[in-house]
Design goal:
2-thiour_desulf; four-stranded parallel β-sheet; 8 strands; binds iron/sulfur cluster; alpha/beta; 149 residues; 5 helices
Length: 149
């Protein structure tokens, strides 16, 4: 039986990004061979539509580029994602780097100027608090190596 891997849905080629595009990763077929994938898009799970205005974390709040506070939707999305991770017994997640939901270690700084700061997206924050190991598309090789061990 393959281990489960929670994965940002846009990395699987689903057009759920704010701009209606996706972030398909070339190693998806390999990941499918190794893991039972559990795709999630926290922003869609929070009730937001696609396409939608881009949003960034501004301290504890998440706001769109035109100033709408979407914190509530992002937090609902984080909780729904966590519930799916628990239901599927996922203890690893491969998440889209830099996103205000899915980003790990580095995210946009809230000024909508493509500037990064240290920090996690709010869904990743919830996953980490619940001891789910997080990787991004930048460290797929590491994820593959660690799975082999
Ligand atoms: Fe991808 Fe996450 Fe953004 Fe959804 S919320 S589009 S899964 S980065």
């Amino acid at each position: 039986k393959k281990p489960k891997l929670l994965i940002s849905e846009c990395l699987c080629g689903v057009s759920c990004r704010y701009d209606g595009k996706d972030n398909y990763i070339g190693k998806l077929p390999l990941l499918k061979e190794m893991f039972d994938l559990v795709p999630v898009c926290p922003e869609v799970l929070g009730g937001l539509s696609t396409p939608r205005d881009p949003a960034e974390r501004q301290g504890e709040r998440i706001c769109t580029a035109n100033g709408t506070d979407v914190t509530k939707e992002f937090l609902i999305g984080a909780q729904n994602t966590l519930d799916i991770a628990f239901q599927n017994e996922c203890n690893r997640a491969l998440m889209k780097a830099k996103s205000p939901s899915c980003g790990y270690k580095r995210i946009y700084d809230g000024t909508f100027s493509k500037t990064l700061r240290d920090g996690h997206g709010c869904t990743v924050e919830a996953l980490l608090k619940n001891n789910i190991e997080v990787y991004t598309e930048d460290d797929i090789d590491l994820l593959i190596e660690e799975k082999k061990r």
